[in-house]
TrEMBL record, chain B:
One of its GO terms (molecular function) is heme binding. Keywords: Cytochrome c-type biogenesis, Membrane, Transmembrane, Transmembrane helix. Pfam families: Cytochrom_C_asm. It comes from Maridesulfovibrio ferrireducens. One of its GO terms (cellular component) is plasma membrane. It comes from the Bacteria. This is ABC-type uncharacterized transport system, permease component. The keyword Endoplasmic reticulum does not apply. The chain crosses the membrane at residues 6-24, 36-56, 68-86, 93-112, 124-155, 184-204, 216-233, 245-267.
């Protein structure tokens, strides 16, 4: 092929936040249009808080330096300043990198799914701007497919990797649905507030806040749509509470195991989940020894998160092998975009279908002489060849036109499903309707 | 092989496939396998129902004295109760208890073709309708409660000891669900068991002229009833939840199984299936 695919970018690993901020793309449509005006065939840019990446498909005369200069220029910086913070992948390495990004293998927190949505968004913009054509279309659709495979064939994204999410996951393991559960926040630390927010987002019905400074409790209650209660009324409130998050600065235990026995009886042994984020701890560790009471402190939750992180790393190895095999398959498709392999594939497909049908027919006919059998075989194969004559001539004529080769060859491959590909239905982005 | 035998092998195959899908689906967190397990169980259950119906219709005069019939009926009850549970909590997890037991009982029913029970013909209808029907369904419920109890204790230990929960999979129900299933099975199972027992004693009074004859089966059954009654009381009045009722229902179920397999086969009793 007389063209190259480049993926040039910077991310949280290659550049600091100041550089990422400076070279973030604010007007992607204009950026892509500028590159197309330079003679680049296809382009798609992605700009998020953790990465900026530009995928281009261009003729061999273009180099990465021209793209880097354009990028630096557009952001009011210099190529010398930008270049050391970037990476550049060419052809299949670029494809491989894109698949890794889409599958969230290159993310700061491996397995977090946000990047896929951002990628779909950028692709939609590129399609609407007419900047994404055959190669980028195929690359992106394939990347969505790879991401889906990775998510369904590995458990890369199945475990919580933040303290507050781990707490919510545990609460779900105890209570099932959190809808209708009542939570209590003791103290008003930032991490406890975050955990409480996650609980509320997961369906917890009401949240009450007890703090030594009542005004602070009231203030927080307003933001969380909860209710402030006096710190002294803590125990009265416990029998009616399912999930307790504690983060006071008290030097000794606020809730003691011996007092909890009474509370448990009062609430007819319904389960309770304590999340103790305070250091030193607010809740007597013996509470965990009571039936139907579960206590997790900050170290326990950290352990859960670390174990989950380690498991994600293990799953990433599996995910990488999926990415590798899909990259190879994409490479085969790229190679097939020259006309000759497609013609060979078309005739192979036609002969395959003819032979399959021939076998069925001969079986139905029963015993026939060898001459008749050969005549039927010749007829079946020549019908297939003759039917392909016109489409192949059409393809040959079209590929002689400037810039039409890939489009028509790709179309033919898709029409006859020569790559045996399945593109997931949700991989498609809306195409902008032409007004005229 | 007769058509009837072939029919029974199909039931075994379906139950076996269902059980395999349920186990694999739970281990691999695969909902599709759970659905396939359900399809096999539905197919097996439909054929099993037809098998019981045919047995009653074709061998009306002798079927009720055949020991195999009761094993088959008990296995059928397990699947019936599983479907009720699945409808209630929409989780195939409880098939892990029901499907192996149903399969085991159905195979046992084939092995027990020659076993006979003594049954006064004039009381057969009442006996089947109340004593057998209610006792079998309550045993199936007890099994579900015990299965949920085992799962509860396992998950409870994992959470209490802060072990890694990911190995359990996302699809495993919560502690609350296990406890609800345990509660539901006890709430329905105990009254049914009581009704079944009362029917049995009334039948004994009519047949043997005395309600209680210190038969080993009767003694164990009464012990089970007392434990079951205690559990029912603690659940409803005291409000027991979680670990304690889980442990107690497992004990009750184990005693019931010992009674079913041990006493019926190895100790002389009214309920023994004599060859």
């Amino acid at each position: 092929m007389d063209q190259n695919i480049y993926l040039i970018g910077l991310n949280h690993k290659s550049a600091g936040v100041d550089v990422r901020e400076r070279y973030a793309l604010t007007n992607i449509e204009e950026f892509e249009k500028g590159l197309l005006d330079m003679g680049i065939r296809e382009v798609m840019a992605l700009s998020t808080c953790n990465r900026v990446e530009i995928i281009v498909v261009c003729s061999e005369e273009f180099t990465e330096n021209e793209i880097l200069s354009y990028w630096a220029d557009k952001c009011g910086g210099s190529k010398v300043d930008l270049e050391p913070n970037t990476y550049c992948h060419k052809n299949l390495k670029a494809v491989n990198h894109l698949f890794r990004v889409a599958s969230s293998l290159d993310s700061m927190i491996v397995g977090e799914p946000q990047i896929l949505g951002q990628l779909k968004d950028s692709y939609r913009k590129a399609v609407e701007a007419g900047a994404a054509r055959v190669i980028i279309n195929r690359m992106l659709h394939k990347s969505f497919f790879v991401a889906k495979r990775v998510r369904s064939e590995t458990s890369i994204a199945s475990n919580a990797v933040s303290i507050s999410y781990a707490a919510v996951e545990l609460a779900k393991k105890i209570f099932g649905e959190l809808k209708g559960q009542k939570a209590l926040l003791i103290g008003a630390g930032e991490m406890a507030e975050l955990a409480a927010t996650h609980l509320l987002n997961s369906g917890v019905e009401t949240i009450r806040i007890a703090n030594r400074t009542f005004s602070r409790a009231e203030e927080l209650a307003k933001t969380m749509n909860g209710k402030a209660i006096p710190f002294e009324a803590l125990y009265d409130c416990l029998s009616d509470t399912d999930i307790i998050i504690s983060s006071t600065g008290a030097p000794h235990a606020v809730i003691k195991a011996k007092d909890m026995k009474k509370v448990i009886k009062q609430r007819k042994f319904r389960p309770m989940f304590f999340i103790d984020i305070a250091v030193p701890r607010d809740i007597d560790p013996d509470v965990n020894g009571l039936d139907n009471v579960y206590l997790y402190d900050i170290d326990d939750l950290k352990d859960v998160v670390e174990e989950n992180m380690a498991q994600r790393e293990d799953e990433a190895v599996k995910a990488n092998s999926i990415v590798e095999s899909e990259t190879l398959s994409f490479g085969n498709w790229i190679n097939s975009l020259d006309l000759q392999p497609t013609i060979v594939d078309l005739f192979d497909r036609s002969e395959g279908v003819a032979r399959k049908e021939l076998a069925k027919t001969l079986k139905r006919l029963g015993k026939i002489d060898i001459e008749t059998q050969e005549a039927i075989e010749t007829m079946a194969l020549s019908i297939g060849k003759k039917l392909l004559h016109e489409p192949v001539s059409f393809l040959k004529r079209r590929t002689e036109e400037e810039g039409a080769a890939e489009k028509f060859v790709d179309l033919a491959r898709r029409m006859f499903n020569l790559d045996n590909d399945t593109i997931p239905p949700d991989a498609h982005c809306r195409r902008k309707k032409q007004k005229d | 092989m007769t058509l009837f035998e072939f029919f029974q092998y199909v039931i075994i195959a379906l139950y076996l496939m269902g059980m395999t899908f349920f186990i694999a689906g739970t281990l691999k967190n695969n909902q599709v396998m759970g659905k396939l397990g359900n399809l096999c169980a539905i197919g097996g259950f439909a054929l099993h129902s037809l098998d019981l119906l045919l047995a009653v219709t074709l061998y009306k005069s002798t079927v009720l004295t055949g020991g195999f019939f009761y094993f088959s009926l008990l296995g059928w009850s397990f699947i019936l109760v599983y479907f009720a549970l699945w409808w209630k909590v929409r989780n195939t997890f409880f098939a892990l208890t029901a499907s192996p037991l149903a399969l085991l009982l159905f195979i046992a029913s084939l092995a027990a073709q020659s076993l006979k029970v003594t049954l006064p013909a004039h009381l057969a209808g009442l006996f089947i309708g109340l004593h057998i029907g209610t006792i079998f369904v309550s045993i199936a419920l007890m099994a579900m409660a015990a299965g949920a109890g085992v799962a509860f204790i396992y998950l409870n230990n994992k959470i209490k000891t802060k072990a890694n929960l990911t190995s359990l999979g996302k699809e495993m129900p919560s502690l609350n669900t296990f406890d609800r299933v345990n509660h539901w099975a006890i709430m329905i199972g105990f009254p049914l068991y009581t009704l079944g027992l009362a029917a049995g004693f009334l039948w004994a009074r009519g047949t043997f002229t005395k309600m209680f004859s210190w038969d080993p089966k009767e003694i164990v059954t009464l012990l089970v009833w007392f434990l079951f009654a205690f559990l029912f009381h603690q659940r409803t009045v005291v409000g027991w939840r979680g670990r304690k009722p889980a442990i107690l229902v497992i004990i009750v179920f184990v005693i019931t199984m010992i009674s079913l397999w041990g006493i019926n086969f190895f100790i002389p009793t009214h309920h023994s299936f004599k060859v």
